[in-house]
Design a protein that fits this description.
alpha/beta, Uracil-DNA Glycosylase, subunit E, six-stranded mixed β-sheet, 32% helix, 13% strand, globular
Length: 216
């Protein structure tokens, strides 16, 4: 199921807070008129049930920016969703589209930046501009106990949204950080095709991250 958007302040569909991202989105609407081409909302179980929040970097041009659902339609989703199903955080079959019927179980998936950036690389000002939305999202999940950050940028965005210093919690794949507010932040390399193709992240390494959540 998709998230109950009324539970959180919605990112405006034609948000212009980041001029570079807005211009890129405008260009994509011309080049890919059938794509979603808007800030991508979170994918979620009901907010009151969410215990695990997964935070990625940003929508992929031909992934979430096309389908309108995080990590859907590209290699990252091919790795993420089967892993979540295997560990009980999702049910159904991942079918590369937002209408595949897949459901999350006590989990929510979002991004540090909601709009697709050129070359998949948001700049600092864009990450900061979207951070308020992430902070509101975390605050709106009353049962939340675990956060998984996919990559260093997501790790930093989570800490900033919580008002904590990144220097106090060093990013490392598989690292688990018990935060002062009672949340546990677990780090993973991003499940991108680049990371898996280069061997920086293997399927076994990624699976181990979600296996470690059981210990908590």
């Amino acid at each position: 199921m998709t998230s109950a958007q009324s539970a959180f302040p919605a990112v405006p569909k034609d948000c212009r807070a980041c001029p570079r991202l807005a211009a890129f989105r405008d260009a994509n609407r011309s080049g890919y008129p059938d794509f979603f081409n808007a800030p991508v909302p979170a994918f979620s179980d009901h907010p009151a049930a969410v215990k695990l929040l997964i935070v990625g970097l940003a929508p992929g041009l031909k992934g979430a920016n096309r389908t309108g659902r995080p990590f859907t339609g590209d290699w990252a989703g091919d790795l993420l969703y089967p892993t979540l199903i295997r560990h009980g955080w999702a049910k159904g079959t991942y079918g590369l589209s937002a209408d595949d019927g897949l459901e999350l179980v006590e989990a929510r998936i979002t991004n540090a930046v909601r709009c697709v950036p050129p070359e998949n690389k948001p700049v600092g000002a864009e990450i900061n501009a979207c951070n308020t939305f992430l902070g509101d999202e975390i605050a709106g999940l009353p049962a939340l106990s675990q956060i998984v950050a996919l990559g260093g940028i997501a790790h930093g965005a989570v800490l900033k949204a919580l008002g904590m210093k990144k220097s106090a919690f060093k990013f490392a794949h598989g690292a688990q950080h018990d935060l002062e507010n009672g949340l546990r932040l677990t780090d993973s390399y991003h499940c991108s095709r680049y990371n898996t193709n280069t061997g920086r992240l293997t399927e076994a390494m990624f699976d181990a991250v979600f296996e470690s959540l059981r210990d908590a």
